[in-house]
Automatic annotation (TrEMBL):
Domain of life assignment: Eukaryota
UniProt name for this protein: RNase H type-1 domain-containing protein
Basic and acidic residues composition bias: residue spans: 9-19
Biological classification of the source: Eukaryota, Viridiplantae, Streptophyta, Embryophyta, Tracheophyta
Record-annotated membrane-spanning stretches: none
Domain RNase H type-1, chain residue ranges per copy: 42-109
InterPro entries linked to this entry: RNase_H-like_EbsB-rel (IPR052929), RNaseH_domain (IPR002156)
Disordered: annotated segments: 1-33
Pfam families in the cross-refs: RVT_3
Organism: Cinchona calisaya
């Protein structure tokens, strides 16, 4: 649970629940149910250069929006934000395979 707290803290500071619409405007984002898949995996990596650590997080939701699994994996070194994002996608694919999920959608930033 400590890792989840670290992930939440870094993510909260970096994103504040908004994303850019391509201009100077910030748009509130919401989760949307999948259309053609049974499970959607939302993944994100939080990187802290000051502590030289990263945290990978994956949330799995069913087609009704119910959370069915959460995985958090701390990295004890900060490689690069792009590499960390690739690693969290890899983690999501590994977990989907372990769960036996065939119809999976993936969302990441």
């Amino acid at each position: 649970m400590q890792e989840w707290g670290e992930f939440s803290e870094v993510t909260r500071e970096e994103k504040k629940g908004t994303e850019s619409d391509g201009g100077n405007n910030q748009v509130q984002t919401r989760w949307k149910p999948p259309r053609n898949v049974a499970i959607v995996l939302n993944s994100d990596a939080a990187t802290s250069i000051s502590t030289n650590k990263s945290v990978l997080g994956v949330v799995a939701r069913d087609r009704h929006g119910q959370v069915v699994a959460i995985w958090v994996e701390p990295l004890h070194q900060c490689l690069d934000a792009e590499i960390d994002e690739a690693m969290v996608l890899r983690l999501a694919m590994i977990k989907a395979k372990e769960e036996g999920w065939d119809e999976v959608g993936m969302l990441s930033d």
